[in-house]
Write a structure and sequence with these properties.
Elements: E1 8-13, H1 19-27, H2 31-38, E2 43-47, H3 49-64, H4 82-100, E3 108-113, H5 121-126, H6 131-134, E4 137-143, H7 146-156, H8 172-179, H9 184-187, E5 194-197, E6 200-208, H10 213-216, H11 218-236
Parallel strand pairs: 1-3, 1-4, 2-3, 4-6
Antiparallel strand pairs: 5-6
Length: about 240
């Protein structure tokens, strides 16, 4: 019997592209509708932002106690680029821990992250996932321009909740340095349906969000998301 749901859905794109808004929308759907319309079962979200925020907090604790910072410099940039790949492998570890515990057949893991060319891009990131994990996965890329990412990044910031997945933001200068350029166009240029890593074809779809339907919500978001995931589901089952 073919499962009705994705095992793993990667939700990727620039910061503030609408990834977390899509997750929030999916959480609000009745389970049966989410399965039949979006092919997403009861799902577990795995996001590297809480991991990054923990590093910031730990570095601040160390600095207050006169100890060297482990992960970030005083301007909030990673001290070593390989830490971006460490996060990717942490995402995979979290998935397998979850899959080995209470995660049942028909459930979906939604893995969310953003990467810019400055620190290797999506191509570098996906090269650090195992073939075993990639064979279970599909990718939904949320497409916005850098200018739109910058606009929404500023708009969503809540200074009282800098640790919040939905309300955190980067300073403009930092956003431009880290995410001003993306390798996504080159990554998907060779094949309109699949990304190719480690001998594995990973199906993908692009969710166009230049008109910001993720903020507007409602029928526009629901219709576009269902259409994208229906097409992605066809590729996933080929």
């Amino acid at each position: 019997m073919i499962s009705e749901t994705f095992k793993i859905l990667f939700l990727i794109g620039r910061p503030a592209a609408g990834k977390s808004e899509i997750i929030s929308f999916l959480k609000g759907l009745p389970p049966e509708e989410r399965i039949t319309a979006c092919h997403i079962g009861d799902f577990y979200e795995i996001d590297d932002f809480p991991m990054i925020w923990t590093w910031f907090e730990e570095d601040d604790i160390l600095a207050r106690n006169g100890k060297p910072r482990l992960y970030t410099d005083w301007d909030g940039y990673f001290k070593f680029n390989y830490l971006w790949n460490l996060l990717i492998e942490r995402l995979e570890i979290e998935y397998w821990k979850m899959a080995a515990s209470s995660f049942a057949d028909g459930n979906t893991a939604v893995i969310e992250f953003a990467r810019g060319r400055q620190h290797g891009g999506f191509g570098e990131a996906f090269s650090h996932f195992s073939e075993k994990l990639l064979r279970r996965a599909a990718v939904l890329y949320i497409d916005v321009s850098f200018e739109e990412s910058l606009r929404k990044n500023c708009k969503r910031f809540n200074p009282d909740k800098p640790y919040s997945i939905l309300e955190h933001a980067l300073p403009d200068k930092k956003l431009k340095r880290l995410y001003g350029e993306s390798d996504w166009p080159e990554l998907c240029s060779a094949d309109p349906d699949y990304l190719h890593f480690k001998g594995t074809r990973v199906p993908y779809m692009v969710f166009e969000n230049k008109d910001d339907v993720t903020t507007k919500g409602g029928g526009a978001l629901a219709g576009r998301l269902r259409q994208c995931l229906a097409e992605l589901w066809k590729k996933y089952n080929r």
